[in-house]
Design a protein that fits this description.
Helix content is 32%, strand content 20%. A hairpin with a 5-residue loop joins strand 1 and strand 2.
């Protein structure tokens, strides 16, 4: 499994269904996220089991990502037509409804291979990648197929990255928006731990 953290996010162009329901033949990652943070998440297949819960969770938090200037993009090996059909299936019938973010069709498996999240069965593991404004991967996590991801944790990572970018301090274990950061020095560690070690 490749570690992409610290490396440029692999670019791609593929068919997709946009958040407004429009089907496009050539959605390009680099053009879409230029100068913005982005979250790319991979999931195994449309019309399956754990997947709709994750896609709905991302949709429920879409405004929180948008407020932070983060583009959200889902990817699976299904076609754009399957994505569209799933979007047009109500949640009560196992669909995802009109999710507000883009779903990319990786029918040739090139994208999941570029991000090294393709399972032996050919579908993507539940990989999530946070990309900064320069197009660099800053955080990744990959879950096995039965294990649904925590979308709130991705929001926490977005906030932690923004805090570090703004203040230059690092974010210790369990850091949440509003918490103190840590100066990345022996003195900074000592000062932080003297005040906060009992909360860790």
């Amino acid at each position: 499994m490749a570690v992409l953290v610290g490396k440029p996010a692999p670019d791609f162009t593929a068919a997709a269904v946009l958040g407004n329901g429009e089907i496009v033949d050539a959605f390009n990652l680099a053009e879409t996220i230029k100068g913005k943070k982005a979250v790319i998440f991979f999931y195994p297949l449309d019309f399956t089991f754990v997947c709709p819960s994750e896609l709905i969770a991302f949709d429920h938090r879409f405004e929180e990502f948008k407020k932070r200037g983060v583009e959200v993009i889902g990817v699976s090996i299904d076609s754009q037509f399957s994505h569209n059909a799933w979007r047009n299936t109500s949640v009560n019938e196992g669909g995802i409804g009109q999710v507000k973010y883009t779903l990319v069709a990786d029918v040739k498996h090139e994208i999941c291979q570029a991000y090294d999240v393709e399972s032996e069965g050919g579908v993507a593991f539940r990989g999530s990648f946070l990309i900064d404004e320069e197009g660099t991967v800053r955080h990744q996590v990959v879950n096995d197929l039965p294990l649904g991801r925590n979308v709130d944790e991705m929001l926490r990572m977005v906030d932690a990255l923004a805090f570090h970018q703004e203040h230059g301090e690092v974010c210790p274990a369990g850091w949440q928006e509003g918490d103190k950061g840590m100066n990345a020095s022996p003195e900074g560690v000592a000062a932080y731990l003297s005040e906060n070690s009992d909360k860790l």
